[in-house]
Amino acid sequence: MTRPIILALPKGRILDEAAAVFARAGYDLSAVFGDNRKLVHECGLVRVLVLRNSDVPTYVAHGAADVGVVGSDVLEEEGRELYEPLDLGIGRCRMIVAERADHRVDERAQSHLRIATKYPRTTRAYLHRRGITAEVIELSGAIELGPLTGLCDRIVDITQTGETLRQNGLVEVDTIGEVSSRLVINPARLKLDGDRLGPMIDALENAIK
User: Which domain holds residue 102?
Assistant: First the structure.
């Protein structure tokens, strides 16, 4: 019996968008929407694992999944050696720097700048490029709360529309980069199973044209 291609997809909005792209490429993943409590779904020749976005690169890197879809923000932060053949053009947003609208920061004059983020590696690289010295505080959620409680002066986070920032009295002060979801593949698996993974890449590339 042929082993299924194991595909790791993130929960949430990107799952819906990714399933639509795969459908256009000829892969019916509709079974993933049948029972949202299940984390493993059999979709014909593809077995889908539904994971947290941040866990997708780990599963692919360790060979527990052959292929994955994950945001470029996570890939930048993780720094793993994965093959990234396609930008799928979904899950688009921006990685930004923000601060309180009523408490603007002079980053050059402030003696102890504190920045809270889920992306410490990316944030430190950004600060290094800008020549800014700051303490980076790692959080796992509700990043917008940091400046409101005095935990930090600024945040680095992703935003799609900026509405959550505005609702919490924050304003953008810089854009670090654009974010979108990428197709990632375990390089060793591509060598072993290129006869099936190659056509999948080609079909997805045609689907996003």
Answer: 93-177
